[in-house]
Specification:
Six copies of one chain form a homohexamer. Chain A is mainly α. Chain A has helices at about 15-25, 35-40, 45-55, 65-75, 80-95, 100-120.
């Protein structure tokens, strides 16, 4: 059902295979998610997206688990079914427990609520937040 | 400009003051954000919202800093100007450095991008994510 | 700051004035909102939008106050500052009290929260809702 | 497919059963929606969410039918499939006819349209709405 | 599963059939999309929506292909599964190639990313954009 | 008011200046938008974002004007004030006339409307769109 279908590893040209190999090596896995196989129809999109994700999601000032949970938070806020499924799996692989998941979702729910209360009540930004 | 205006501490009835006092005690601050002063016009909304926030944002399986950063991530995804301002301040107070902020925003940006690539390419969910 | 500026009544051509007159007659007012003055640069957009709004917002199975409150609910969910301001005013003119406003916003907040809990927890639709 | 699965009534601990019983008594039904069974994995989330919904959705300045229709409006705006399904059913149970539903959706569609026209044309808020 | 079901051509009253005939004549097709069959339960909604779409999507300063691609861009940003599917098909029929599709989605992804970076970093609008 | 302030050209380190120079050369301008100056506090974000934008926005199967208009369409749908302002200016620079702008916004408005009608009416995807 993917718009352009999937590019499977065995059918991929060298450019695409190079990215697939890097994904599997970086993530220590032997499979490629449907997401990558779908966007691989445009090798430039595949490479740029993967290089960005690799740079952004590596451990830094924030660890990988925190980054994966932020990814779940955004995906849930945006109602992206594919992303919620794939990133919940990724977060679990990075160490997210059921308790962490429940707390994460509680914050996501609350933030989506107060975001609209703030807008709906037309609350002006406090001066001290404007620095 | 707030739709119902603000309820200042000195003008608040006992129910509202009780919530204001709890906010200040819990957050170790001597001021009340505009957000609370705006929704205080409906004491039930004020109490319910504060009790929920207090329960959700306390340290648990996730620490408070992580929770505040998730709040910023959702607020940025939803384009809520008030919430971005207030929760960025709260996250800083909880220990978020400039490096953490930059990495947080990088994940938020990337997630908002791949959420739409996944939808736009109509990528079906991998079987192994459906467990 | 509007992208194409405003078309004021005195500067409007006959097509635009006809729409302005109909707006004022229908809404029993002697002024034109900035919104109409902005989109009036494209008379087709002005006419189509006004005719649709007039048809949709008139009392029917739902009364006008209920319709205006739904408009506020959607505008708050979408974080549209202009629309929240203008439709809150319209709802008040149609009879919305402060209590109604507070209850409306409480529902909006709660719905925005549970929408994300349902997605984030990947809840499948109950069979009995699928009829 | 729910992330943490469902907690069925017969498998629920006393805290969760207490909430399930209250839901059924309040809504005069003998079943529990998938939504509650999914979030019940975190009893604090279940209790807090149900208590909030119960408080917010009861008849007040706005009647229950109006509140359920607002819930549908927000859920449609946010594209939440589960919520559209469950709350459309709830609204019907509260008395929503097909005519009401059609008018509700017409307002939702129109509001989502004009929200973007207002933003896209960068319309500044009328002074008289700023009080 | 559509809320009110579908109105098939053979079961349609004259008002609805007139719109169905116009859709098929305008789009040079012999079938009616599920979308029209669903909203046809409210003939006023069907007529108003079709008349608007016909007026808006016809070639003008922008050609039809460009308009269909904009429609895909918005639908992907909003995560509307039905709309992504139907408008991708329409765009292809209007001449969208796989390369155009890939470039379209790349822009959609990037725009959704930088929209949140701009908000999250609370970037004030440059003076020269305010004219 | 930007969260981390702006990095002005004269205060920029060599890495940041290199990106600023490339932006000005590519866009044939002598100024740097506030957006770039804000994210420049994280040189990795600045470089990655600019390199992606440069790759994506260059003329290809779609010309630059079409790409800028898609960017405006997404930004309006997401209610991003900064992005609407800056990309409307960019689209004008690329050749967008007032007529094109009006038609663009008409499509954006209509798409945001029908996206919600499709969801709200729970319209199932036509079989022929699933190939």
């Amino acid at each position: 059902m993917a718009t352009l279908g999937f590019i499977e590893y065995q059918d991929a040209n060298p450019d695409v295979r190079a990215v697939y190999d890097d994904i599997m090596a970086t993530r220590k896995t032997d499979r490629i998610n449907n997401f990558w196989k779908a966007i691989a129809h445009d090798p430039a999109t595949l490479r740029r997206t993967w290089e960005s994700v690799k740079q952004i999601m590596g451990a830094g000032a924030l660890d990988s688990l925190t980054k994966e949970m932020i990814y779940v938070a955004v995906s849930a806020s945006n109602q992206c079914g594919y992303c919620i499924a794939s990133h919940t799996a990724a977060a679990r692989k990075a160490g997210m427990t059921d308790s962490m998941f429940a707390e994460l979702m509680a914050v996501v729910g609350m933030a989506n609520e107060t975001n609209r209360l703030a807008s709906g009540y037309q609350v002006e930004i406090d001066e001290q937040f404007k620095t």
